Amino acid sequence: MMTYEEYLDEVTTLMTERFDLSDDEAIKHVMRAQAADFFTLHDDIPDMRTQERAEQDAKTIYDMRNKSRGHAPVKLVKTGGKPRKA
């Protein structure tokens, strides 16, 4: 069984290996998930810190990574006729 810190390291490593993220990107996403209490139960329940669960969590965090970001509004410019995207 992994310690909590080992578990977070494993999730981060899996994200770099499976989703072609840099170490910095993977660390950023895992830290954001941790700040959002994604790993709270993992800290309290050691049985959750398995390799299989780390693989599931890496995918979940990867899938969630852009959902919390707002999208930039589309900027329209007038071209004498219909507006178009800038």
TrEMBL record:
Superkingdom of origin: Bacteria
Name the UniProt record assigns to this protein: Uncharacterized protein
Origin organism lineage: Bacteria, Pseudomonadati, Pseudomonadota, Betaproteobacteria, Burkholderiales
Organism in which the protein naturally occurs: Undibacterium pigrum
